[in-house]
Write a structure and sequence with these properties.
The complex is a heterodimer of chains A (287) and B (266).
Chain A: E1 5-12, E2 32-39, E3 44-49, H1 55-62, E4 70-75, E5 78-79, H2 86-92, E6 93-96, H3 109-113, H4 115-119, H5 124-137, H6 153-165, E7 171-175, H7 183-200, E8 203-207, E9 219-224, E10 227-232, H8 234-238, H9 241-246, H10 253-263, H11 275-285
Parallel strand pairs in A: 3-8, 3-9, 6-7, 7-8
Antiparallel strand pairs in A: 1-2, 1-4, 4-5, 9-10
Chain B: H1 16-19, H2 22-38, H3 42-59, H4 63-70, H5 74-87, E1 92-96, E2 99-102, H6 103-129, H7 132-142, H8 153-183, H9 193-199, H10 201-224, H11 243-265
Antiparallel strand pairs in B: 1-2
Helix pairs in contact in B: 2-6, 2-7, 2-11, 3-6, 3-11, 4-6, 5-6, 7-8, 8-10
Classes of the chains: A alpha/beta (287), B mainly alpha (266).
Bound molecules: adenosine-5'-diphosphate (ADP) and magnesium ion (MG).
């Protein structure tokens, strides 16, 4: 079976005519350069990078909202440049954006979740089934008759996730889904995303700038100025704390602590990421 | 004040009125409005009021909610009422300075205000009890024949449904911008009309910029969810005429007939 998402020498430039968003300068320089990235089925991939490093652009290239200026993007072996399969690509790769208000198209909640399957021409009885399943999967079934604008940020974002789950996608790409949420909303969304990955086997690409959200990812991709500068396990990436700082990124507090200890001469391993692992590492060093 | 605007909002429920086919409801509103503007005496107006009362009772829409929806119209209602009261010629009962108030004036004023109130309430019941998607599906279906003369019916109705969806969001945003501008010393409440209109500029510009940005993001989100126009689209709630729709239609026809009959007989 082909890889779920594969990019080959992907290059992207926003042309003046294409720049839709207000206030963004139209850059003639490529925003993404020679990206070669493979995302395997069922994995949890985190993508980090400073503002403007091209993360959102990459996300929109994954489902053919933007099309490569050079190179290719393959989804399940389908070229996103092929107009005949573009709907199939979009069905497989669901995109969730930062601002939940701007991706909810209808009220009440269940009508919004039905939007994608309606577009796909799914028969009415099956739409109902998919909507119910999707809302249960994100824990919003009880609020299905509510008006979305009255929900909390975390709940709205879970509705947005349900909206793409109803397409029965292979993969969900989330572009900073927690950036506008309070800590509780963040927890809700992250727990939901992890559960979808672990229990439903949905591939997750989580774009974020909270390093702590990357700790339990299978892969961590670090982007800088339109290029992929690191692509490894989170452990391996975080051991290069200095490099990350250079790129304008922070490391999780656990890693920061271990690095500080090491700098001041204590011989601790620096690859303990979770709080428990970190505590254990320190405990072992000072028995 | 801004939060009083309930225009186009849907309040979920599970009553006969909620369950009616949206096309039935849209047609009923049209019939109701025609009857309302045909009715020209107390008897026919009373019939209309009874009908409206019945629908409100059946739909279990809270009266408080309907009245709240009327609040933004208070000024228009007052002006209409006053103008009619003073400007209708007739035998004055009370007169002071240059004003004469006649019995006819009072009658006309009350009549017009009641008519406007009933008109607004009737249309509000439609949007309060119908999810926007169903409403637009109903409209799209009713306007279906226009597709043959190349009217972009699907596009028009999807625009309408997005507008309905974003009313609460944009109202909330307006509220926020107003607070932000007030915090910087903007004054929306005092001064003459010209001054007040000018004060709205720092409100409208950010609002429009943000609306355009939202539209951009919304379009991307819709396409990401496989939106590709009306072709091949199915609906979760299929439109279906049932017995209750037929009954409602008959009631509407009877209402219209009664009112027209009364008017003609007079
Ligand atoms: N619609 C657009 N038109 C022109 N340039 C854009 C547009 N969107 C983003 N850019 C530019 O592309 C670069 C990468 O942006 P983006 O992908 O949004 O980065 P990130 O999501 O990592 O913050 C930035 O320099 C940004 O200014
Ligand atoms: Mg971004």
């Amino acid at each position: 079976m082909p890889n779920l998402i594969q990019t080959q020498n992907l290059t992207f430039t926003y042309h003046a005519a294409e720049s839709g968003a207000l206030g963004t300068p139209s850059a003639a320089a490529p925003v993404l350069r020679e990206i070669n990235l493979t995302i395997q089925r069922g994995t949890f991939v985190a993508v980090v990078g400073a503002n403007g490093s091209g993360k959102s652009t990459l996300a929109k290239l994954f489902n053919g909202i933007l099309l490569p200026s050079g190179g290719k993007v393959y989804v399940d072996g389908m070229d996103t440049l092929d107009e005949a399969t573009i709907l199939e690509v979009r069905r497989r790769i669901g995109l969730v954006f930062q601002n939940p208000d701007n991706q909810i198209v209808s009220t009440p909640v269940e009508d919004d979740v039905a939007f994608a399957p309606e577009n796909l021409g799914v028969p009415p009885a099956e739409i109902r089934q998919r909507v119910d399943d999707a809302l249960k999967a994100v824990g919003m079934y009880d609020l299905r008759r509510h008006a979305p604008h009255l929900l909390s940020g975390g709940q709205k974002q879970r509705v947005a996730i349900a909206g793409v789950i109803a397409m029965r996608p292979e993969c969900i790409v989330l572009d900073e889904p927690t950036a506008m949420l309070d800590p509780i909303g963040r927890r809700e969304v992250l727990d939901t995303v992890r559960r979808l990955n672990a229990e439903h086997g949905i591939t997750i690409v989580l774009i974020t700038h909270h390093m702590s959200e990357c700790i339990d990812a299978d892969h961590l991709v670090v982007m800088s100025e339109g290029e992929i500068v690191m692509d490894d396990t989170p452990k391996a990436v975080f051991t290069q704390a200095d490099r990350l700082t250079e790129l304008g990124l922070t490391v999780p507090p656990t890693t920061a602590l271990l690095h500080e200890l090491r700098k001041s001469g204590v011989d601790v391993p620096v690859d303990a990421l979770t709080i428990n692992a970190c505590a254990e590492a320190i405990y072992k060093t000072f028995p | 004040m801004l939060r009083d605007i309930t225009l186009g909002q849907y309040f979920p429920g599970d009553t006969v009125v909620h369950r009616l086919d949206p096309r039935t409801k849209i047609c009923m509103v049209v019939v109701y409005l025609v009857a309302l503007f045909t009715a020209n005496d107390a008897v026919s107006m009373a019939i209309m009021a009874c009908f409206l009362g019945l629908v409100i009772a059946l739909s279990r829409v809270k009266l408080r909610l309907l009245l709240r929806g009327l609040r933004p119209l208070l000024i228009i209602l007052t002006i209409t009422g006053l103008l009619n009261m003073f400007l209708t010629p007739g035998e004055p009962i009370v007169s002071f300075w240059v004003f004469n108030i006649s019995a006819e004036g009072i009658y006309r004023a009350v009549f017009l205000v009641v008519r406007i109130v009933m008109m607004v309430m009737g249309t509000f019941i439609l949007t309060y009890t119908t999810p926007p998607m169903s409403l637009t599906d109903g409209l799209e279906s009713l306007m279906g024949p226009l597709k043959r003369i190349r009217v972009p019916v699907h596009e028009l109705t999807i625009i309408m449904s997005m507008a309905l969806r974003f009313i609460p969001t944009l109202i909330e945003e307006t509220d926020k911008i107003m607070s932000a501008q007030k915090a910087r010393g903007a004054d929306f409440e005092t001064g003459n009309l010209f001054k007040r209109a000018k004060a709205l500029i720092p409100l409208l510009i950010p609002l429009f910029i943000s609306a355009f940005r939202r539209a951009d993001e919304l379009a991307v989100a819709m396409e990401s969810r496989c939106y590709h126009g009306g072709e091949g689209r199915t609906r979760m709630r299929g439109l279906k005429f049932r017995r209750r729709d037929a009954l409602t239609g008959l009631t509407g026809a009877a209402l219209l007939a009664a009112v027209i009959g009364l008017v003609v007989l007079r």
